[in-house]
Design goal:
The protein is mainly alpha-helical. The protein has 15 helices and no strands. 51% of the residues are buried.
Length: 300
């Protein structure tokens, strides 16, 4: 189960809370949040046109085209902090993290109170598993824009990774208060509530997430995991299958499906699901083998 991709008990790879996010394990990028520019002086002239075209290309997932337009914008206006930030974000989505960090650093040098540059640099650091610097950047983004929901959500993810679930829960709640339609924040808060044993409240959050985004594979997987915990095996099977239909590369969903099959005493199907899970992410094997053993012991 995930916090945007946490396995049944404990965490694994995260999903960023950014609305670009497939998960950290993600394959193809989906559109990321566009960078706000209220705090950044806008250059005049044709540089703006290249920035505008870069945004349009980015929204169509044409990352190389977007970067090319931003290269032109920066060539025309080397002090354009927005262009550096946008190019850094496109490089981040391409997983060129060191190049992305260089661009975010430049954007911050040019505009030291630029919340988006801190936020996206935090996402990049989180992807590199540099949690303390990521936490600092999310906090700075919040300091410069206290009404910015995204860094609250991602800071909550970092707090969870560092074992501070109560603070994580508060950050997810703050993100929801700022953006009541924030699907990922509901999903993540639901997971925190599930960890606290508040299953009914967790279920409401998963269902709210799905009401906002009926094709969210992570909310289906999390709700399926919750149903499995409540021994609703048919409901768990249905939700996890929906998750896999939307994201066949979701390793945790394959492992959760294996647990459902095992609970239904379908050992062959369970072995197949676990093999698919471990092929996608071998690091999951120790945790899920431990959970499978508990299920086997309960059946004995």
């Amino acid at each position: 189960m995930k916090l945007l991709a946490l396995a049944l008990s404990g965490l694994l790879l995260l999903t960023s809370c950014s609305k670009n996010a497939k998960v950290d394990k993600a394959s193809a990028p989906t559109p990321t949040p566009t960078v706000t520019t209220a705090s950044v002086p806008r250059p005049s002239g044709s540089s703006d046109e290249h920035v505008k075209r870069s945004r349009e290309l980015f929204e169509r997932n044409n990352l190389d085209g977007s970067i090319d337009e931003l290269n032109k914008a920066i060539s025309l206006s080397p002090s354009n902090a927005e262009a550096f930030c946008l190019r850094g974000n496109a490089l981040r989505v391409k997983k060129k993290y060191d190049e992305a960090l260089a661009d975010f650093n430049k954007a911050i040098e040019l505009s030291p109170k630029y919340p988006d540059a801190f936020y996206f640099r935090g996402l990049t650091l989180m992807a590199k598993e540099e949690l303390d610097p990521a936490l600092s950047d999310f906090s700075k983004a919040i300091d410069f824009d206290p009404n910015y929901a995204l860094p609250y959500c991602d800071r909550g993810v970092v707090y969870h990774l560092k074992g501070n679930n109560e603070t994580a829960l508060r950050d997810f709640e703050k993100a929801i208060s700022l953006d009541p339609n924030y699907t990922v924040a509901y999903n993540n808060r639901g997971y925190m509530l599930q960890l606290k044993g508040q299953f009914d409240a967790a279920l409401r959050d998963y269902e709210k997430a799905l009401s906002l985004d009926a094709e969210n594979p992570y909310a289906y997987n999390n709700r399926g995991s919750l149903k499995l915990a409540k021994n609703d095996l048919d409901g768990a099977f249905s939700d996890i299958n929906k998750s896999l239909g939307l994201d066949p590369e979701n390793a945790e969903a394959w492992c959760n499906l294996g647990l459902v099959h095992l609970s239904k005493k379908k050992e062959a199907e369970a072995r197949l699901s676990f093999s698919k899970c471990y092929a996608l992410n071998f690091k999951l094997k120790p945790r899920y083998e431990k959970m499978a053993k508990k299920i086997e012991q309960a059946k004995a």
